[in-house]
Amino acid sequence: MSKIPTPFRPLQISVLTVSDTRSLAEDTSGDALIANLSAAGHFLYQRELVKDDVYAMRAVVSKWIADENNHVVLITGGTGFYSRDSTPEAMIPLFDKQIEGFGELFRHISYEEIGTSTIQSRAVAGLANNTLIFCLPGSTGACHTAWNGILKEQLDSTHRPCNFVELLLGAYHSKLHEV
Cα-flanking dihedrals φ and ψ of residue 162, to 5°? Predict the structure, then answer.
Protein backbone atom coordinates (compact mmCIF):
# COMPACT_ATOMS: atom_id res chain seq x y z
CA MET A 1 0.00 0.00 0.00
CA SER A 2 1.69 3.20 -1.16
CA LYS A 3 1.15 6.51 0.53
CA ILE A 4 0.00 9.48 -1.48
CA PRO A 5 2.58 12.24 -1.11
CA THR A 6 1.40 15.22 0.89
CA PRO A 7 1.47 18.42 -1.16
CA PHE A 8 3.30 21.49 0.08
CA ARG A 9 0.85 23.96 1.63
CA PRO A 10 2.15 27.53 1.88
CA LEU A 11 1.36 29.48 5.03
CA GLN A 12 0.63 33.15 5.66
CA ILE A 13 3.31 34.29 8.10
CA SER A 14 3.60 37.63 9.90
CA VAL A 15 6.88 38.99 11.24
CA LEU A 16 7.15 41.24 14.28
CA THR A 17 10.44 42.82 15.30
CA VAL A 18 10.75 44.01 18.88
CA SER A 19 13.40 46.69 19.25
CA ASP A 20 14.01 49.94 21.07
CA THR A 21 16.92 50.82 18.79
CA ARG A 22 16.17 49.62 15.22
CA SER A 23 13.88 50.79 12.47
CA LEU A 24 12.47 48.59 9.69
CA ALA A 25 15.25 49.87 7.43
CA GLU A 26 17.85 48.45 9.85
CA ASP A 27 15.96 45.26 10.69
CA THR A 28 18.29 42.56 9.39
CA SER A 29 16.69 39.90 11.61
CA GLY A 30 13.20 40.55 10.26
CA ASP A 31 14.65 40.66 6.74
CA ALA A 32 16.32 37.27 7.33
CA LEU A 33 13.07 35.69 8.50
CA ILE A 34 11.22 37.09 5.48
CA ALA A 35 13.90 35.84 3.08
CA ASN A 36 13.80 32.37 4.67
CA LEU A 37 10.02 32.04 4.72
CA SER A 38 9.77 33.29 1.14
CA ALA A 39 12.49 30.93 -0.08
CA ALA A 40 10.57 28.06 1.55
CA GLY A 41 7.43 28.96 -0.44
CA HIS A 42 5.44 30.72 2.28
CA PHE A 43 3.93 34.21 2.09
CA LEU A 44 4.66 37.28 4.19
CA TYR A 45 1.25 38.31 5.50
CA GLN A 46 2.17 41.35 7.62
CA ARG A 47 5.24 42.95 9.12
CA GLU A 48 5.63 45.41 11.97
CA LEU A 49 8.23 46.75 14.36
CA VAL A 50 7.35 47.77 17.92
CA LYS A 51 9.28 49.01 20.92
CA ASP A 52 9.95 46.48 23.66
CA ASP A 53 6.68 47.13 25.45
CA VAL A 54 4.43 44.31 26.65
CA TYR A 55 1.19 46.02 25.64
CA ALA A 56 2.42 47.19 22.23
CA MET A 57 3.50 43.62 21.43
CA ARG A 58 0.24 42.13 22.67
CA ALA A 59 -1.80 44.63 20.65
CA VAL A 60 -0.11 43.68 17.36
CA VAL A 61 -0.07 39.94 18.01
CA SER A 62 -3.66 39.91 19.32
CA LYS A 63 -4.78 41.50 16.05
CA TRP A 64 -2.85 38.88 14.07
CA ILE A 65 -4.12 35.87 16.02
CA ALA A 66 -7.69 37.11 15.59
CA ASP A 67 -7.20 37.11 11.80
CA GLU A 68 -8.08 33.65 10.46
CA ASN A 69 -5.94 34.27 7.36
CA ASN A 70 -2.77 34.57 9.45
CA HIS A 71 -1.23 31.19 10.30
CA VAL A 72 2.08 31.97 12.00
CA VAL A 73 3.68 34.86 13.88
CA LEU A 74 7.47 35.05 14.03
CA ILE A 75 8.75 37.50 16.64
CA THR A 76 12.39 38.51 16.77
CA GLY A 77 13.83 40.37 19.74
CA GLY A 78 13.13 40.91 23.40
CA THR A 79 13.96 37.39 24.58
CA GLY A 80 17.13 38.17 26.54
CA PHE A 81 17.71 39.21 30.14
CA TYR A 82 18.02 42.96 29.82
CA SER A 83 15.49 44.91 31.86
CA ARG A 84 13.48 45.87 28.73
CA ASP A 85 13.41 42.31 27.28
CA SER A 86 9.80 41.28 27.76
CA THR A 87 8.69 39.24 24.73
CA PRO A 88 8.09 35.99 26.67
CA GLU A 89 6.15 37.87 29.36
CA ALA A 90 4.04 39.52 26.66
CA MET A 91 3.28 36.36 24.68
CA ILE A 92 2.93 33.50 27.16
CA PRO A 93 -0.40 34.82 28.55
CA LEU A 94 -1.78 34.77 24.98
CA PHE A 95 -0.93 31.09 24.43
CA ASP A 96 -3.69 28.49 24.55
CA LYS A 97 -0.90 25.90 24.61
CA GLN A 98 2.83 26.35 24.99
CA ILE A 99 5.19 24.37 22.74
CA GLU A 100 7.40 23.19 25.57
CA GLY A 101 10.18 21.70 23.47
CA PHE A 102 10.79 24.70 21.22
CA GLY A 103 13.00 26.70 23.58
CA GLU A 104 14.94 23.64 24.65
CA LEU A 105 15.56 22.53 21.06
CA PHE A 106 16.54 26.05 20.01
CA ARG A 107 19.07 26.31 22.82
CA HIS A 108 20.42 22.83 22.03
CA ILE A 109 20.99 23.76 18.38
CA SER A 110 22.30 27.20 19.28
CA TYR A 111 24.84 25.72 21.72
CA GLU A 112 26.79 24.35 18.75
CA GLU A 113 27.09 27.90 17.39
CA ILE A 114 27.51 30.16 20.43
CA GLY A 115 28.33 27.83 23.31
CA THR A 116 27.03 28.55 26.77
CA SER A 117 25.82 32.02 25.75
CA THR A 118 22.70 30.22 24.52
CA ILE A 119 21.56 29.92 28.14
CA GLN A 120 20.60 33.62 27.96
CA SER A 121 18.01 32.94 25.26
CA ARG A 122 14.43 32.81 26.47
CA ALA A 123 13.05 31.61 23.12
CA VAL A 124 9.48 30.33 23.55
CA ALA A 125 6.60 29.27 21.32
CA GLY A 126 2.93 28.52 21.58
CA LEU A 127 -0.42 28.18 19.89
CA ALA A 128 -3.08 30.91 20.25
CA ASN A 129 -6.42 30.78 18.44
CA ASN A 130 -5.01 28.28 15.93
CA THR A 131 -2.05 30.57 15.19
CA LEU A 132 1.52 29.54 15.92
CA ILE A 133 3.70 32.11 17.69
CA PHE A 134 7.48 31.72 17.81
CA CYS A 135 9.54 34.14 19.93
CA LEU A 136 13.15 34.27 18.74
CA PRO A 137 16.21 36.20 19.84
CA GLY A 138 16.91 39.46 18.04
CA SER A 139 20.17 38.50 16.36
CA THR A 140 20.13 37.69 12.66
CA GLY A 141 22.19 34.56 13.35
CA ALA A 142 19.64 33.31 15.87
CA CYS A 143 16.83 33.85 13.36
CA HIS A 144 18.71 31.76 10.79
CA THR A 145 19.39 29.09 13.43
CA ALA A 146 15.72 28.86 14.42
CA TRP A 147 14.54 28.80 10.81
CA ASN A 148 17.05 26.25 9.50
CA GLY A 149 17.12 24.09 12.61
CA ILE A 150 13.40 23.93 13.48
CA LEU A 151 10.92 26.14 11.66
CA LYS A 152 11.73 25.21 8.06
CA GLU A 153 10.72 21.59 8.68
CA GLN A 154 7.91 22.15 11.16
CA LEU A 155 6.20 24.67 8.84
CA ASP A 156 6.52 22.30 5.86
CA SER A 157 3.45 20.13 5.22
CA THR A 158 5.63 17.49 3.51
CA HIS A 159 7.85 16.95 6.59
CA ARG A 160 7.31 13.59 8.31
CA PRO A 161 6.45 12.11 10.69
CA CYS A 162 4.64 15.31 11.74
CA ASN A 163 4.55 19.06 11.27
CA PHE A 164 2.51 22.00 12.49
CA VAL A 165 0.83 22.63 9.13
CA GLU A 166 -1.44 19.63 9.69
CA LEU A 167 -2.63 21.23 12.92
CA LEU A 168 -3.05 24.72 11.47
CA LEU A 169 -4.84 23.86 8.26
CA GLY A 170 -6.89 20.96 9.55
CA ALA A 171 -5.38 18.20 7.43
CA TYR A 172 -4.81 16.03 10.46
CA HIS A 173 -8.38 16.42 11.70
CA SER A 174 -9.79 15.81 8.21
CA LYS A 175 -7.89 12.51 8.01
CA LEU A 176 -9.37 11.37 11.31
CA HIS A 177 -12.89 11.90 9.99
CA GLU A 178 -12.15 10.05 6.74
CA VAL A 179 -11.38 6.79 8.53
Answer: -155, 160
Q: Are strands 124-128 and 131-136 parallel, antiparallel or unpaired?
A: antiparallel
Compute, in degrees rounded to 10, the torsion defined by CA atoms 28, 29, 34, 36.
110
Domains and CATH numbers, the chain: 12-178 (3.40.980.10)
Spatial neighbors of 172 by CB under 8 A, at least 6 apart, are 166
Global model pTM greater than 0.70: yes
94, β-bridge pairs: none
pLDDT tens for 131-176 read 999 999 999 999 999 999 999 999 999 999 999 998 888 743 443 3
H/E segment holding residue 135:
strand 131-136
Give the containing element (helix H, strand E) for 50: strand 43-50
Residues 9-40 as b or e (16 or more Cβ within 10 Å = b): bbbbbbbbbbbeebeeeebebbbbbbebbeeb
